[in-house]
Amino acid sequence: MEPAVNGHTHVNGFTHHTPLQNGHLSHEPAVEELEKELPMVMDGQVPLGELVSRLVQSIYAELVEMAETMPNMSDAARKRSVADWVVKTKRQVVKVYAIAKWSRDAGVVQKAMNITAFLMNQNRQFEDAIMGLKYGRDTLDPARLRNHDLLTSLDVLTTGTYRRLPSCIKELVVRPTPLTETEVSRTLADIEDAMRYRLRMSEIIPWEMSHYRIANGRVFFTASKLFELSLCLIGARKDDGWFFVNVTFLFNVGGDRTGMQEFPRTPSGALKRNISDEADARLAFYLPPVEPPPPGVEAPPRPQLPEGVVDAPLVRLFNFLQMMSLSYQLEILWYQAERMRSLGWADYLTVQMTKNRQSFVVHYWMRKPSPRRRNPTQQQKPLPLLGGKLSISIVQVKEKTGRNAMRSPCARVLAELQSRSKLDTSRPSDEVEHMRFDVRWEPELGALGVIPAPEDMYMHPEELRIDPVDLDFETLLRRVIRRHTEGIMKFFQAQLQRGIATRNVFSPPGEVTFVSNEGAPSLRVHLCADEVVVVTVDPRTGRLTLRDTGDLAAAGRGPRFAAVTQKLNDAPNMLPYALVSLRVTTIIDLAEQKVQYLGLQSFRMRNFSADEIKKLGPDAQGTLYIQLGNFPMHYLVLVITDQDFRYALISVREVESSINHDLKMEDIGWLNVRRIHGDNVAVESGPGLEPIIGQKRKRDEGFGRGAPQLQGELAPTSFRLNTKVLRELYAYCCARVAYTKVEQQFKLRGIPFIHVSSSLNGYVPEFGNVQSSLARTIPALCVQSSDILSGAPAAEAAMPNIRVIPLNWWSSDDAKVVTCVKLKYVQQPIGKRASGSTVIRPSKRIIYDTREAIVSFLSDNVDKCVDEFLEEWARVSKMVVIAREVAQMSTKYLWTDVRLISFDLQTVEFTYAADYSVSLTCTDELSTNRSSYHLRFARVLPDDAMQVDPVDPLSDPSHNPHEDADAFLCALLSHGKLSTALHRLVALLRETLPIVAELVDIRAAAARRGVCIDAFPKSAGWFRILYGDLRHALDFRLMAGARVVVLDGSHTLFEDGADGRVVAGRRGPVSGSLAARAQLPGGNSGNGNAVALQPIPEFRTLVGEAIKAAVANGVKGQFAPIDIGVICDVGAVRVVGRMLYHKVLEKLAQTRSTQL
Question: Please, are residues 839 and 777 in contact by the beta-carbon 8 Å criterion?
Answer without folding.
Answer: no
